[in-house]
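2024-03-11 09:14:02 DEBUG pipeline.ingest accepted 1 chain
2024-03-11 09:14:02 DEBUG pipeline.ingest length=396
2024-03-11 09:14:03 DEBUG pipeline.predict start
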Amino acid sequence: MKKRESSTGKTGNYLAIISVLLMLTGAVKAYAVEVAFGLLRQPVETTTAVPEYLAEPENNGESGAELAVSDANGTGKFLGQKYSIHTQTSDDPAAINAAAKAWYDTGMRFFLADLDTPLLQGLRKALPDDALIFNVGNQDDARRTTVCLPNTLHTALSYGMRADALGQWLRVRRLTEVFLVSGITDADAKFLAATKSSLRKFNQKIIKEKVWNFDTDLRRTASAELPLFTQASDYDAVWVIDESNLFGQHLPYNTWLPRPVIGTHGLRADGWSYVIEQWGAVQLQNRFTKKFDRPMTTKDFAAWVAVRSVNEAVTVLNSGDVNTVLPFIMSDKFQLAAYKGRKLTFRPWNGQLRQTVPLFDAQALVASAPFDGFLHPRNELDSLGVDEAQSECRQF
């Protein structure tokens, strides 16, 4: 009987010790490192001219950040790390900056921005330099070349990176003569400038250039109007630039000559697509679709990568201090696995995320740039977009 009591007493002691350890472990998990993100975004613009199936999701980008925070908390609970995200959606500069400064005053130092150029520049001026901003939506090459923002990293592709990916594909396929069609929006103009620069870089010729500035509903007349619009003696490909989906989706199979359509429609080059399942990406795609009931977009991926970059640094350093995290992210020790076939890093002169650029159509991944043969003395990924010698930025 005494022996049984002794055994029971020992068991009780063990349970008490385990309980204390679990309580202590729980406390560490909850309070050791806390990282808060602030997402600042403009509302999604909708227009009846764009078909619903091509409309931008209302939570575009926001969902990618939320998934990354959820992923980070999944492993963070075992490491004593906690992540959270707060969102402000507005096209009012005062509201955007006020929200950012209020979050900063609470201790937040990591911000995601899906803003146009004036709002992004205003946000950077409104926040102290020790706030780290991830640009997850702005593709303007000027942000990487001449208008250099301090402590601002770019997980969004630039227009130049997208154009160079397509330019390399044309060179590989020996397609050198291009019929160029563009829209009239500001985004179209910036992508057009990047496209012309890329065509010059790869020694490709613009056979003919046209601007689509009509408000015609092409859903019934595309087969009659577009062949005449794209009429020329000869060309190897039609490069369309229509960031707003106003007409570009009607060009494939409706050109004067039976040629491939590339650019914003047909064969596209962008940061992400639902067709990517290689390199384990199907797991990411499935998690996203299950959580948000729609495919993951380019902005979703850029926001996901931004959060994952901080998460990777915090996991290694066990610190959420931006003065520790940022130098690590910009160092040679940082490499991010992001379902793109190779480890990704940031360019030290302008903060652009080096990454492969998938080329795809609506149903399959066609290729991934950079292509074999496009060499670079430092990193082959730097063959996409403006290189260090052409950039005035020296931010890191």
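2024-03-11 09:14:41 DEBUG pipeline.report The radius of gyration is 24 Å.
2024-03-11 09:14:41 DEBUG pipeline.predict end
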